[in-house]
Write a structure and sequence with these properties.
Chain lengths: 256, 256
């Protein structure tokens, strides 16, 4: 039975302030919840009779059976799947700069759209990128739209919110040769660039690109070329699409 | 002055039935409207005092000055930009199969999400792809979400709704060697495939991929490899991201 207080709690998790306060987030749909189950502690599982068997093996601190009407009160989906989970956010651990000296990582400078952010988490996962470093103004990784768009990839990709300029400064002080890539209009053709399997790729805000403060810290300015070269067609690519193309190109170069 | 009838008409264009009936679609925001102005006939321009000067040079069959409250009644944006245009949809011309023998084109098999569709139109534009052939069940290119996500690229990319299987059959009967590419799990590593600068690339539905009927007609099955190869990380990429990576790879191969 879904109490009023429970409904209020679940609905509150649509808002960042309450996610931060409770250290919890919501995921909806069997497949997504199944993907996250092994990586996050499940506080609460709400499900309809139809899903009871399918989710029987899920571990959760609390389970509530409800009906379609109950599910309608808590879902943010237009076609709810009949199962909603509240997970604990992962513990904040110290942010590892050293990882960037050893493997390829992503940095997001104020990505605003939660759908773009979730799609980028999924891209990182596909291309074996395990850490995303985000400026504090980047969308919340645990917001419902980001979670749904990331399709379970948060189970494998770690998100760190940090001050990017000081993070990169520290990175450089530790090991000067670690490359810092950024996509910049007028940068070098990415197909002709030397791409490493270590370092940081910075992707910028949807409208503004990478902030000037961070552009200064780049060691490589790269660009995805138009076709034909120099054509004056679309002015830009969606940031998630650009991230996909850039990551694919890094991984193509070293794909064994 | 925005009459009740005008408001009703503009709002009706959020629905496909009324867009089809009136042969009109809506675009919002100065930049988008500016991009579309040269390619589509503007039936109606609604703007606030703030935008009056900026849009003075736009040609439109009718112009209506309104205030913020009036704009609120017709906008579908959370932060309306102060200018909304109603454009005529382009005339339906005969669908050219022969274009696929000469240049690279895209085909979309039931892409459902209008944001994905608009993003794909923008990708096509960036990579100099001028024609997209869509199955009848693909989202409407003239829906407000597709239009906003395409960011003016409809000015340069033509959309054709057709029966894809018979279109491809005709294509093959005209010229057997024209390649038909499709991304398929288990396909050939795209980095090792022979990619042409002619033919058709088919992208499939968000959940189902390319329909079996069309898979049979492919001449090349390609796949974007995971990193590392064979890893069991993310199961799939967002369809717009996959389209971006595939198009980039085709164009990289022949980028002069």
């Amino acid at each position: 039975m879904l109490s009023k207080n429970k409904i209020k709690f679940i609905k509150s998790l649509a808002i960042k302030k309450y996610r931060d306060g409770s250290n919890c987030f919501i995921a909806e749909g069997f497949k997504l919840i199944n993907d996250l189950m092994g990586s996050f502690v499940c506080e609460l599982l709400v499900f309809t009779k139809e899903k009871e068997q399918a989710i029987a093996h899920f571990k959760a601190n609390e389970r509530i059976l409800t009906d379609d009407a109950g599910m309608q009160k808590i879902t943010s989906q237009t076609s709810p799947d009949g199962v909603l989970a509240v997970f604990q956010k992962p513990q904040n651990s110290a942010t590892p700069t050293n990882i960037c000296h050893q493997e390829l990582c992503l940095a997001l400078d104020e990505i605003q759209n939660p759908g773009n952010f979730g799609t980028i988490i999924r891209i990182a996962d596909w291309f074996g990128i395990k850490h995303i470093f985000c400026s504090p103004n980047t969308a919340d990784a645990y917001g419902p739209k980001t979670i749904q768009a990331s399709m379970g990839s948060l189970a494998r990709v770690k998100i760190h919110y940090i001050d990017l300029p000081s993070f990169i400064a520290q990175l450089k002080s530790e090991q000067e040769e670690t490359p810092i890539y950024g996509t910049i209009l007028g940068g070098e053709n990415i197909y002709q660039s030397t791409l490493s399997n270590k370092g940081l790729i910075i992707m910028g805000n949807e409208g503004q690109g990478i902030s000037p403060q961070l552009v200064k810290l780049l060691t490589h300015h790269v660009e995805i070329p138009h076709y034909p070269l120099g054509a004056s067609n679309a002015e830009s690519l969606n940031v998630a699409v650009a991230t996909g193309i850039v990551c694919a190109e890094f991984r193509r170069n070293i794909n064994i």
